[in-house]
């Protein structure tokens, strides 16, 4: 049985006969009659009492009519829901974001997108770049914001922004009044770093190796607030993106670093050959222009 056959049958009942139904549907009466007969043959039932002058449903015909009305209403609702999704009227975006990113860029862009599409909902999980990739690989999120570059055999990537990595110390540090610090001069310092899920840790260690030392890591963690307090307490120094430095306690300062890879690149990534829903694609396109 086809959907159009159900529609023909319902129209016949609503219009009180095949003649009116054919005019309403703009199709031949014989076409309607043939399709209703096909339903009866398929289910081996009689839908109308044809002995009567007017259209009269049989008992099974009445049951079939009620079910057809119910099914067609569900299909209409489904059609509206699909239209909503394709027209970005509603939808759901699952995001993975890095804890060490320009939060203002993210929230401001999300606010603008949400003002355009207020019925869209969001699910945001936070973690290091390695965690974001794990979530993508396990289809727990649709798109992530993380450190670039990534493996281009696995992910699509769109750059968002680039910023400096800076030495972060308290204002009483011997480095605080310097305009720049050579990375190699930090070989005797104790470093407070993000934990192993974060690519920034790998980048810093590799940069230190290139200038001749391996950093002494006194602590690894994932919370900016903890890193901030450990610096204030004199436990160690850290290296963080400039946008993060700008929101830290006023008693903490950032100093430019020389002699190292001091650029921090963030971008949007999503898994190749995975399905991305309409609203998420629209959000990706929005971020491309927003940046």
TrEMBL record:
GO terms for cellular component: cytosol. PROSITE patterns: HTH_LYSR. Keywords: DNA-binding, Transcription, Transcription regulation. GO terms for molecular function: DNA binding; DNA-binding transcription factor activity. InterPro entries: HTH-type_LysR_regulators, LysR_HTH_N, LysR_subst-bd, WH-like_DNA-bd_sf, WH_DNA-bd_sf. Residues 1-58 form the HTH lysR-type domain. The keyword Transcription applies. Signal peptide: none annotated. It comes from the Bacteria. Belongs to the LysR transcriptional regulatory family. This is Transcriptional regulator.
């Amino acid at each position: 049985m086809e959907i159009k056959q159900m529609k023909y049958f319902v129209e016949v009942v609503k219009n009180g006969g095949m003649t009116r139904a054919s005019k309403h549907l703009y199709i031949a009466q014989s076409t309607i009659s043939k399709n209703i007969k096909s339903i009866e043959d398929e289910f081996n039932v009689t839908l109308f009492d044809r002995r009567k002058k007017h259209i009269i449903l049989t008992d099974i015909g009445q049951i079939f009519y009620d079910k057809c009305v119910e099914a067609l209403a569900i299909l209409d609702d489904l059609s509206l829901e699909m239209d909503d999704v394709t027209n970005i009227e509603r939808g759901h975006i699952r995001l993975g974001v890095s804890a060490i990113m320009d939060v203002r860029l993210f929230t401001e862009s999300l606010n603008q997108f949400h003002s355009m599409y207020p019925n869209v909902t969001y699910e945001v999980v936070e973690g290091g770049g390695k965690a974001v990739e794990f979530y993508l690989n396990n289809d727990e999120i649709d798109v992530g914001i993380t450190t670039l570059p990534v493996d281009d055999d696995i992910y699509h990537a769109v750059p968002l922004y680039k910023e400096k990595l800076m030495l972060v110390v308290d204002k009483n540090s011997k480095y605080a009044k310097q305009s720049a610090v050579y990375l190699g001069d930090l070989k005797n310092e104790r470093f407070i770093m993000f934990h192993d899920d974060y690519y920034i840790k790998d980048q810093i260690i590799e940069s230190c190796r290139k200038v001749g030392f391996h950093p002494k890591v006194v602590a690894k963690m994932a919370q900016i607030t903890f890193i901030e307090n450990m610096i204030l307490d004199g436990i160690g120094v850290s290296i963080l993106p400039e946008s993060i430095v700008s929101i830290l306690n006023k008693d903490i300062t950032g100093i430019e670093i020389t002699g190292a890879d001091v650029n921090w690149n963030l971008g949007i990534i999503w898994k190749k050959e995975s399905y991305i829903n309409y609203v998420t694609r629209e959000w990706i396109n929005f971020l491309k222009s927003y940046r």
